[in-house]
Structures are given as structure tokens and as C-alpha cells.
TrEMBL record:
NCBIfam families with a match to the protein in the record: rplX_bact
Highest rank taxon of the organism: Bacteria
Provenance organism: Breznakia blatticola
Keywords tagged on the record: Ribonucleoprotein, Ribosomal protein, RNA-binding, rRNA-binding
InterPro entries, A to Z: KOW, Rib_uL2_dom2, Ribosomal_uL24, Ribosomal_uL24_C, Ribosomal_uL24_CS, Ribosomal_uL24_KOW, Translation_prot_SH3-like_sf
Family classification: Belongs to the universal ribosomal protein uL24 family.
Protein name in the entry: Large ribosomal subunit protein uL24
Domain KOW: from-to ranges: 2-29
GO function term, MF aspect, one: rRNA binding
Assembly description: Part of the 50S ribosomal subunit.
Length: 102
């Protein structure tokens, strides 16, 4: 999987299409990522001693990695990621601009 934690990504499909945000967590075995502010779900909480009113909590659910694309902030475009070897080191680069990721 070429998307890593902390990468800026753009959602390319679904109800949050076009959203640019940061990846909070990556699940490589499931090919899923959690993106900040995307795919929000609500969970109803029972009242407890710590929180006597209970309430409704809202949090992000994972989305499939095929639904996001790495976002190049300088070019202001979504791009695929390639690997190149520079000075004996494997480096991730944007396919459209050829610049290194981060």
C-alpha cells in the first residue's frame, strides 16, 4: 500500500468526494485507511456514571484505499505515487509532478 499515515489525500469517490484531508491511521491487511473528517458515523452512548446524560458520539470509519488518492499540495492535484531509487534509497514520488512525497 502506497498511502502512509500523515499523507494528504483527496477522496475520489463517495459522499465525501473532493475532500482533501490527512490520513490518521492505516490498516494494510484490510487495505483501508481512516481519513480525518471523512466517512463520519454516529454512535449512541448509554448513560454511565462518568457521563450521566449519555449522548451521541461521532467518529471516522475506515474507507477503502482505492477511494483515496495522494494529494500534491504544490501542484494542487491528486496524483498516484511511484517509487524511485535515488542515491541507493527508495523514495516515494508523485507520478504527475515527479517531486518527492513530503
Amino acid at each position: 500500500m502506497k498511502i502512509k499515515k500523515g499523507d494528504k489525500v483527496q477522496v475520489i469517490t463517495g459522499s465525501d468526494k473532493g475532500t482533501v484531508a490527512e490520513v490518521k491511521k492505516v490498516f494494510p491487511k484490510e487495505n483501508k485507511v481512516i481519513v480525518e473528517g471523512v466517512n463520519m458515523k454516529k454512535k449512541h452512548l448509554k448513560p454511565t456514571q462518568e457521563q450521566p446524560e449519555g449522548g451521541i458520539a461521532e467518529f471516522e470509519h475506515p474507507i477503502h484505499v482505492s477511494n483515496v488518492m495522494a494529494y500534491d499540495a504544490k501542484a494542487k492535484k491528486a496524483s498516484r505515487i511511484q517509487y524511485k531509487v535515488e542515491k541507493g534509497e527508495k523514495v516515494r514520488v508523485y507520478a504527475k509532478s515527479g517531486k518527492a512525497v513530503k
